[in-house]
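Backbone shape codes:
===
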Amino acid sequence: MQNFVQYAPTEVIFGKGTEEQTGAAVSKWGGSRVLIVYGGGSVVRSGLLKRVEESLERENIIYEEFGGVRPNPRLEFAEEGVKKALAFKADMILAVGGGSSIDTAKGIAHGAANPDLKLWDDIWMKQAPLTRSLPVGVVLTIPAAGSEMSDSAVLTNEKLGRKAGLNSEFNRVKFAIMNPELAFTLPAFQLACGITDIMMHTMERYFIPGIKCQLTDEIAEGLLRTVVENGRIIMKNKEDYDAMAEIMWCSSISHNNLTEAGRGKDFSVHKLGHALSAKYDVAHGASLAAVWGSWAKYIYGGAVDRFARYARKVWGAEQEDDQAAALTGIAKTVEFFRFIGMPVSLKELGVKPSADDLKALALDATRNDTLKLTRIRPLGAREVKEIFELANQ
């Protein structure tokens, strides 16, 4: 087991009707002037935004709205939010929505606390140290990204055609309100993308070979089994509260660093998915599902024992031969993605990259071939292009 630091300070307020506690949570964490960040009209149409604002009013908290967050959250929109937060003199940012709204809120919080720094060049590209941020709270509506408990945030710079993540302890939100009922109205495709992202956050940490980490492995395997079992249920009945609650809790645990304790992480599939999302503006979860099978078949030989354990513990593979078991686990995963309606190739993702496009995607994923992906075996731009080619067949 490797040395590690486990730090997940977010207060979780979980269960039915918990959005009514938003005002109390904001007050507890020192908020008095709150900028509410959200996406489209669903939180308005459902009445959620009104309930949140009434909760703030009961605590005499002043607020202002900032709606319009899009999937694959945009840098430019976050920069607009920074200006609005500064003009409003916000002392807390409140995200109402899923990962895109939360990541945008984190970006706004960093920028508003550091008005002399450029959000992309200085903060996101780490050209200047991030030493402070505004507090962020969350009312979660989509179990998926796990941003409600993670130390990460992702923004897309449309001018550069690049999607990039930032890891920082300042990305830890103060509180996360999670009512599984708020996810009942999600479209099936959005739920499937969320299920995929939850699994990916766990698997991106799981396959690293050569490290004994029994408890962390057991947690990861249990989480994956839970997602598969309850994912099947909610794809048939979105209003099964217990199943949705399991999925929402898995979303948070999958990305709060618990499933990497003693092992670390290896987000190579995310690098491929980010390249696809930046170029084609496709849904994040779908981009991951479209390339995971090709990535796994390309890389599993460097960690056969890990893939075999995954197959046996998560999918019940019975083959004694590790290679046979590993291939079964890969096939079962791809089959599950298909079952929940996810694309498992670039064609199914709805994109038709040329040979030059595949090369450009590989260069984007590897930062112009300066970054070697995976801790299983190094993947440069040439190898990543070959994975994209497999996914494009």
Summary: The chain has 16 helices and eight strands. The first strand starts at residue 11 and ends at 14. The radius of gyration is 20 Å. The longest helix spans residues 214-236.
